[in-house]
Amino acid sequence: MELINIEGTPKTPTVIMNPTTGVVEIKGRSIPENSIEFYKPVVDWLDEYSSNPAPKTVVNMQLEYFNTSSSKCILDVFKKLEQIKQASADVVINWYYEEDDEDMLEAGEDYESIIKVPFKMIEIVD
């Protein structure tokens, strides 16, 4: 398994996925022209990773903003993580949100209500 390191742009988040440490980071803005195409390598990587995950998988989601089409793809990513957790691996999602960003906090809570993976809501205070 290879490390994935996708450099962020003004429209796409930085994505770092390390199979050795089990740390997955998605950070920045997610408004790609084609969300499905952008998130496909992420979902494919998690598919492969699920066959031999690290003892603990930690996902750091720190999005400033994401559009509707990204939200569906993010849900697909979380569903893969749910499958990894169901296969008895330890999975935690750290959902970061700005101190005054109620929308991003609610988005994290919405995902948490759908996915059977523990979320930690982490407020970023400037």
Euclidean distance between termini CA atoms: 36 Å
Strand order of the largest sheet: 1-2-3-4-5-6
Tally of helical segments: 3
- Low-pLDDT parts are none
Largest sheet: 6 strands, mixed
Q: What's the CATH superfamily, by name?
A: STAS domain
Report Rg. Answer: 14 Å
Number of DSSP E strands: 6
Q: What is the annotated CATH architecture? A: 2-Layer Sandwich
Explain this structure.
By secondary structure, this protein is of the alpha/beta class. The chain has a single domain, classed as 2-Layer Sandwich (Transcription Regulator spoIIAA), CATH 3.30.750.24. Helix content is 37%, strand content 33%. It is built from 3 helices and 6 strands; from the N terminus they run E-E-E-H-E-H-E-H-E. It has a 6-stranded mixed sheet with strand order 1-2-3-4-5-6, covered by helices on one side. Strand 3 (23-30), helix 1 (35-49) and strand 4 form a beta-alpha-beta unit. The longest helix has 19 residues, at 68-86. The protein is globular, with a radius of gyration of 14 Å. The protein starts with a strand and ends with a strand. The mean pLDDT is 96.
Describe the structure concisely for a colleague.
37% of the residues lie in helices and 33% in strands. It has 126 residues and is an alpha/beta fold. A six-stranded mixed sheet has the order 1-2-3-4-5-6, covered by helices on one side.
List the helices and strands and how they pair.
Layout: E1 4-6, E2 14-18, E3 23-30, H1 35-49, E4 56-66, H2 68-86, E5 90-98, H3 102-114, E6 119-124
Parallel strand pairs: 3-4, 4-5, 5-6
Antiparallel strand pairs: 1-2, 2-3
Helix pairs in contact: 1-2
